[in-house]
Amino acid sequence: MPITQQSEMEVYESFLKEQLVPVACLVDEEGFYPESIMRGLGKLGAFQFSKLNEKEALLKRLKLIEMSAKYCVSTSFLIWCHTTSISFIINSNNSYLKEKLLPLMENGQLLGGTGLSNAMKYYAGMEDIRLNAKKVEGGYSINGVAPFVSNLGPGHWFGVIAQVNKEQRIFAMINCDLPEIKMKEHKDFTGMNGTRSYTCRFNDVFIPNEYIISDSADQFIPKIRQSFVLSQAGMGLGLVQACIDNMLKVVDKQNKTNQFIGISPSEILEQLYALQQKAYLLSENFTKNNFISSVQVRLEAAELALKTAEIAFLYQGAAGYYRKSDCMRRLREALFIAIVTPAIKHLKRILMENNVTSC
Ligand SMILES: Cc1cc2nc3c(=O)[nH]c(=O)nc-3n(C[C@H](O)[C@H](O)[C@H](O)COP(=O)(O)OP(=O)(O)OC[C@H]3O[C@@H](n4cnc5c(N)ncnc54)[C@H](O)[C@@H]3O)c2cc1C
């Protein structure tokens, strides 16, 4: 009997409760990479998207990212990285990658990431492209740097955009094992340390035609950018729910003094439900023309996450001021959601330039 999406999510959630909850602090602070959890989710079918239609795939991805963020935003971000790299292949016309790579990525045997933050900023008019590509026999040669790419390691893959000339940029999948790529891990973040985030330096890296997602990244980007942005909102939604749960634990503390902070868990819960409905509706009614609405939801999720993490901290008081407290981790995670590409400043720029006022 086919399992419904609801029961499918329940299976993933009980797996995460058992496997992820005990190690969430280690992931955030100590740099523990939750590899077995990522591979385990793959085995359970969490990354199977190619048999779903676009709307079903986006909704499943959003809910998976949201649900995991309740326990650990680092792992939720890793799931976003991996599922985003899967979306690159699914949306391409590359039959080689679809046959050879996609099934292994969908079952978690191979893991992937996305090195697109510089390109996303390029398309928003914020900076120049930092990877350059030269057409050579059988493919392209790439030089330059991708300063932050997460969910990498031996055997992993990630997507990048490199500039051939002013008119042409290519989109390629890159294998981390290529010897010409020099990878240096970032180990001293304030949180999110188990995300296996690297600076990747490309020195004449040959990329065969088989690994090219598109010879025109400019035309390909509109196919993936909306789900790229909307699925990230899941990190904010899950984090807000976790912060509300923390507030509820101490709501009556000190003769109900927390009510004088001026906002109750139920008020935030209302805002969360409203935003959740917007995000789900956008996924269910997915069209590639809904980019601006997705940018708004992503921005609202980042702002609600920042606000709620701070309020949950105020509710907790000094107990939350310990470095290892859950409230402190949630603050670090909320700050990450606010600055990861597209960051709040980037999202606001897009909205302003499209004459949309942000919330
Ligand atoms: C924990 C963590 C994980 C991340 N994972 C990813 C990921 O998987 N994929 C991804 O694409 N981005 C990732 N990023 C990067 C993130 O999305 C932002 O792009 C990054 O935080 C910088 O954004 P900013 O706007 O603050 O730019 P700024 O920090 O102000 O930097 C401006 C630009 O300078 C360049 N730059 C900065 N540092 C370097 C450097 N060391 N070498 C060369 N150029 C540099 C970059 O192009 C950057 O966009 C991650 C960041 C963090 C903190």
From TrEMBL:
Gene3D superfamilies: Acyl-CoA dehydrogenase/oxidase, N-terminal domain, Butyryl-CoA Dehydrogenase, subunit A, domain 2, Butyryl-CoA Dehydrogenase, subunit A, domain 3. GO terms for molecular function: acyl-CoA dehydrogenase activity; flavin adenine dinucleotide binding. PANTHER family: ACYL-COA DEHYDROGENASE (PTHR43884), ISOVALERYL-COA DEHYDROGENASE, MITOCHONDRIAL-RELATED (PTHR43884:SF12). This is Acyl-CoA dehydrogenase. It comes from Anoxybacteroides tepidamans.
